[in-house]
Amino acid sequence: MKAFIKRYIGFIVAAAAFVAFILILPGYREKSLSMIVFQTKTMLLVIPPIFILLGLLDVWVPREKMMRFMGPSSGMKGGVLAFLLGSFAAGPLYGAFPVAAVLMKKGASFTNILIFIGAWSTTKLPMLLFEMSALGVRFALSRLAIDIAGIIVIAIAIKRSLSKTEVEAIYSQAEKLV
Amino acid sequence: MDTVILYVIAGVGLLASLLKDRGKTVKALKKAWKAFEGILPQLLVVLILVAVTLAVLDTATIARYLGSGSGPLGVIIAALVGAITLIPGFVAFPAAAALLNAGAGATQIAAFVSSLMMVGVVTLPMEMKYFGRRAALLRNGFAFIFSFVAAIFVGWVVGL
Questions:
Q1: Of the partner residues A31, A45, A55, the one whose CB lies closest to the CB of residue B32
Q2: B91 contacts in chain A (CB < 8 Å)
Q3: What is the rounded distance in angstroms from the CA atom of residue A73 to the CA atom of residue A77?
Q4: What is the pLDDT of residue B68?
Q5: pLDDT class for B158, splitting at 50, 70, 90?
Q6: With contact defined as beta carbons under 8 Å apart, do B98 and B135 qualify?
Q7: What is the pTM of this model?
Q8: Are residues B1 and A47, on separate chains, in Cβ contact within 8 Å?
Q9: Do B149 and A114 touch (CB under 8 A)?
């Protein structure tokens, strides 16, 4: 029970703040509640396939293979693979983090993980056609081009800003979370 | 639409796995559950944060913010609004398109779209759980700065 409360303390605080929020500002009550329902539905819809894929990935992909394809010595190929993996993925950004944890556990390099996260967040190929039709071909393609450069620059910048021990800590945390 | 693709891939993978090795499949599903249960506390916090932000900053309010400011201030407002909201692309793109047609600048809209997708303030509790506080803050910080670069570039190309 104590462990449960400790784990869920953030949620308990957030839930209490939420109740206070809708009591103090009843004008937002209806909308907030319908948003909770809507977001819960989205999560329930998106999460099962992502976590199933993550489980399958963990069980079926041998570490040596992942090391070879996306490990520290995978070079350009590893980066491209990380980019494509993220770009073809679907679902909100929070779905990328658990998948990244499995990739880390399997030995993908940190730079490739950051490229994967960057691609998942912004260069969604399934969304590209939609963006083109809504905002125009020029808008969508120029954004795609600058985003590809940005993802790489950001990945390198984060990697350089973190010490080796910090990266190692992230990897051992990933091990625990999968 | 992309959720359908996700289900197809997961379904095919699960079926193939099941045909090949039942034990391993059960193990995979157990892992899936464990990973889900592990992140559930943070996920629930994110759920509440997303719901409240979207209740306060609904599409109409966002449109008002994006439409009101022009020039550099408008770009900054757009990037800030994008950073704290989390809306799926199929909702955001048509809304952004409507704003563009109504006369909003491409630079402002690009700032909004870029930071909307790359920066996730409300999903930080989850990101920090996986990447630690520093790496998560760094990623969001860099991505926020980058959304201005992207906005200026896209605005320039669209205006060519």
A1: A55
A2: none
A3: 10
A4: 62
A5: very high
A6: no
A7: 0.91
A8: no
A9: no
Average pLDDT, integer, range B117-139? 96
A54 with B39: Cβ contact below 8 A: no
Q: Over 80: is that where the pLDDT of B2 sits?
A: no
* Chosen from A135, A162, A170 to mutate, greatest number of chain B CBs within 10 A: A135
Measured in residues, chain B has a length of 160
Over the stretch B19-43, which tens digit does the pLDDT of each residue have? Answer: 999 999 999 999 999 999 999 999 9
Query: Which pLDDT does position B104 carry in this prediction?
Result: 85
A97–B131: do the CB atoms touch at under 8 Å? yes
A138:B7 CB<8 A = no
Q: Mark the ranges of chain A whose per-residue pLDDT is less than 70.
A: none
Map chain B to HEC letters.
Answer: CHHHHHHHHHHHHHHHHHHHCHHHHHHHHHHHHHHHHHHHHHHHHHHHHHHHHHHHCCHHHHHHHHHHCCHHHHHHHHHHHHHHCCCCHHHHHHHHHHHHHCCCCHHHHHHHHHHHHHCCCCCHHHHHHHHHHHHHHHHHHHHHHHHHHHHHHHHHHHHC
Amino acid A84: pLDDT: 95
